[in-house]
Amino acid sequence: MFKPHFTALAVTAIDGKIARYPGHLSDWASPEDKDALHAELDRSDVVVVGRATYELVKDRLDSRDCLVFTRSVKGLVRQGEHCLYCNADQVNLADVLVQYGYKRVAILGGTQVYSWFLKHNLIDELYLTIEPLVFGAGLPLFATEVADQHYDLVAVKPLNHRGTLLIHYRKSSYANT
Amino acid sequence: MFKPHFTALAVTAIDGKIARYPGHLSDWASPEDKDALHAELDRSDVVVVGRATYELVKDRLDSRDCLVFTRSVKGLVRQGEHCLYCNADQVNLADVLVQYGYKRVAILGGTQVYSWFLKHNLIDELYLTIEPLVFGAGLPLFATEVADQHYDLVAVKPLNHRGTLLIHYRKSSYANT
Q1: CATH assignment at residue A116
Q2: Is residue A113 part of a domain?
Q3: Total domain count for chain A?
Q4: Which of A144, A151, A158 is the closest to B163 by Cβ?
């Protein structure tokens, strides 16, 4: 059976913000976070990313296959060799993944895309990098109300001597409805 | 010299929310977090808390001295044996702390109170407990824009087998302006 596996990857400030404002580059993230991110992307078949985030990061995604969530297209539209634009509310994502053989899916944000997967209860794993700084205000990781979703802590790992933490969670197998 | 020391204590969901809505009791926090919290409060001379949060937690603060931030009073008003109501924008907090001999200050939130101390660049230490669940939406830890404030990671400690983490940060001595 073809069962896709969804891994969300995010880097936040101590106060849970993924950016100060839309378009804010994650140049405040440590090199060690980028290394961990790309190691996970190497294990993935496709990267799912929102249109705005895609514009920010596409140069660093090299030749990785991307599924770009956007409301600007109807259904699914190919955009170049490695990129599909996808209106997530107009396609059956499971069918798209089967069609292209994308089994291991990396979710790179932003807030709207993380929230879409949370709302559909699809996040199997979460790698959360916390950089040791505070923004005070900015964009949250999620912005959609859901019933409590419980996760198991798999590991927590200091990534460097500056205090960056990588926390690995896996969806709890028993506590979620 | 009388130099107060400010420690903020907060428990959040994985996604950085301190509560789902104003008035949401932190009954989702683990017993081990409450133990860690009260151990820190035992080391503190006074608890600073917003009026709404105070109403939620006062029964559990026992006979601890409290400074309750509220705009409902002018300046500083005593309210019972252990409690002072304080309009933080109308008093000199440093003077109040000297007057009452409060040297070690524990900041218990909510968002507005955490933000007040952040904005005034007063948070020396932060104990952040992350419970392994996601709310999706809710109240942020901070809601005030500041220039990047850097912290040093002092320790990260699993509090139980359910995946609760206690992360201890200290204001970075060199990187903040």
Answers
A1: 3.40.430.10
A2: yes
A3: 1
A4: A151
Q: With the CA atoms of A108, A109, A113 and A115 taken in that order, what torsion angle do they form, in degrees rounded to the nearest 10?
A: 110
Contact present, A126 and A10 (Cβ < 8 Å): yes
- What are the φ and ψ backbone dihedral angles of A41, each rounded to 5 degrees? -60, -35
User: Is residue A85 domain-resident?
Assistant: no
Work out the angle at residue B152's Cα, subtended by the Cα atoms of residues B150 and B154, and round it to the nearest 5 degrees. Answer: 155
What is the C-alpha R_g of chain B? 16
3-state secondary structure (DSSP) of residue B111? helix
The ipTM is 0.94
Instruction: With respect to residue A11, please indicate whether it lies within any of the assigned structural domains.
Output: yes
Residues of B in contact with A144 (CB under 8 A): 136-137
* Interface A:B, Cβ pairs < 8 A: 129
Look up the pTM and report it: 0.95
- Alpha-carbon distance of B156 to B176, in angstroms, equals 22
Q: What is the pLDDT of residues A103-159, one digit of tens each?
A: 999 999 999 999 999 999 999 999 999 999 999 999 999 999 999 999 999 999 999
